[in-house]
Input
Amino acid sequence: MKTPRIVEVRQNVLRKNDEIARALRQRFEEAGVYVVSLVSSPGAGKTTILEKTASALAGRHCVGVLVGDLATDRDAKRLERSGARVQQITTGTVCHLDAEMVRTALEGWDLDALDFLFLENVGNLVCPSSYDLGEATRVVLVSVTEGEDKPLKYPTIFNTADIAMITKIDLADAVGFRHDDLAAAFEAVRPGIAVLETSARTGVGMDSWLNTLERLRASSRPIAKPEAADQSIG
Amino acid sequence: MKTPRIVEVRQNVLRKNDEIARALRQRFEEAGVYVVSLVSSPGAGKTTILEKTASALAGRHCVGVLVGDLATDRDAKRLERSGARVQQITTGTVCHLDAEMVRTALEGWDLDALDFLFLENVGNLVCPSSYDLGEATRVVLVSVTEGEDKPLKYPTIFNTADIAMITKIDLADAVGFRHDDLAAAFEAVRPGIAVLETSARTGVGMDSWLNTLERLRASSRPIAKPEAADQSIG
Output
């Protein structure tokens, strides 16, 4: 079903996406906002981790979240309770966010005022992998309930991620989770990837995750912001 | 990113897929093989349910399985132990099976000898929904660990399914599964859909699932097979 014409159209789409993503990345860097995208299967726990993350950061940082779903604004409503600025992106039948959706959703935002921006992608282990969103760090979540072979079966999305977060670690015993098998699968497709283990329910691993975010943002921050640059997006 | 040209190409692809799927469906009916496709998120338990299903049917029926993954033949290897005839379809970067992949994978198969054929799609709640594979029944699996709102957030895949199977029901208490919320979500997007609850680990619900398969096949079977028809595929 993969005809030459489709390949050609797809390549054009990705090329256009990369251009927009590059421009977004430059804007994010100039504004001093650290941008983290989250990808995973449906139900791996992206929204729950983001709720806890945004709430924990709220006292110290200004946080924004863009959240992608095919339908409903349920996740945006959940995330708004954390105090973050939240914008839902509804993709209809499209199985991933793209850079243009991010740019459009950020119209009217003052990026200069943000410290962190999180991009929660559509729950999907395939489609989001090819689309650069201008993020500084991409985190792939995999829950202990999904099976230890997921990196081997969906290599591209793990290969394009910077951090792997194992979620729902509180269920590890209940599902007979084999830690070593998942670690070996990570190493096979993305050697050396940073791995975090979390449970949003018990709080295990959340400090380590929050410290990682702080450290990443601190190490990326320019010494001085460019004073006169136009920081608006769109 | 959804340009008119992409929409046009996509419509042509789907039209072509529908033609091939219609031809497949006719062949399946003529051969008297009952075809069931399974769709779900990654890790919802399609392969495990199919292992148990194929093993349970093995004494009474001849079973075939086509199993789709982006990479690896791990699932095919797991399924072969059940005694079923198994063919892996490796899709590369494509996030779903299509009818042409099914047709190609069945080249050289004697469909007449099969009673059941299962099509395990790529783990994805978005892409597979638009692609008719010629199946008689489509089953969407959702595990209790994924969150009760999945039908609302991925309505198309639930709307195109005939049966919803709730998997990993043995974990319901551990994850605080809210049965009524999921039932309400099913009703909202696909009123009246048949719902089964299963645990491949404990065996709960497997009899009901196997009875459903037998009943569906019996009610679809023609009184007499056409004697002279060419049953080969491809």
Observations:
- The first helix of chain B runs from residue 4 to 31.
- The mean pLDDT of chain B is 93.
